[in-house]
């Protein structure tokens, strides 16, 4: 890679890190996990950019890598287990009634692909076709994930207000 291309790649990483973190946080719901996801994504993007010296759209490549890395991480068995010292009698509820907290909590309850679709559609402001292309699925699948995900979010928010 030439010095100019390397500098361009460095500028991209510095310029997109915060935006990638925000999307990762919405996907994960945990700032530490989001930071790890961004780090992993940026390593993959840098290695990919160096390997394929000419990527047409580095931003789209980074976004797709972020979402794919998130979904792949959710498939791992150890991610599904949670260790507790003592089992709670009742599940803990957040006392903060802030809408953002409720939405992030509701997002965390969705399946990884539904969550990815909603984050890309409503946070990243991508169209249905762009989201479908990025996730490698049909537009009808994006629409159904969107509808089901929004219905689940509405139900979770309604339940929180009860």
Topology diagram in text:
Blueprint: H1 3-28, H2 31-51, H3 58-75, H4 77-80, H5 99-108, H6 112-123, H7 128-135, H8 139-161
Helix pairs in contact: 1-2, 1-3, 2-3, 5-8, 6-8, 7-8
Question: Main sheet?
Answer: none
Which CATH class of the largest domain is shown? Answer: Mainly Alpha
Q: Treating each run of at least 4 consecutive H or I residues as one helix, how many helices? A: 8
CATH topology of the largest domain: Rna Polymerase Sigma Factor, Chain: A
Shape: globular
Which segments are poorly predicted (pLDDT under 50) over 5 or more consecutive residues?
A: none
Cα gyration radius (Å) = 18 Å
| Total of domains | 2
The portion of residues forming beta strands comes to under 5%
Kindly state the number of beta strands.
0
Named at the architecture level, the CATH assignment of the largest domain is: Orthogonal Bundle
Q: Structural class of the secondary elements?
A: mainly alpha
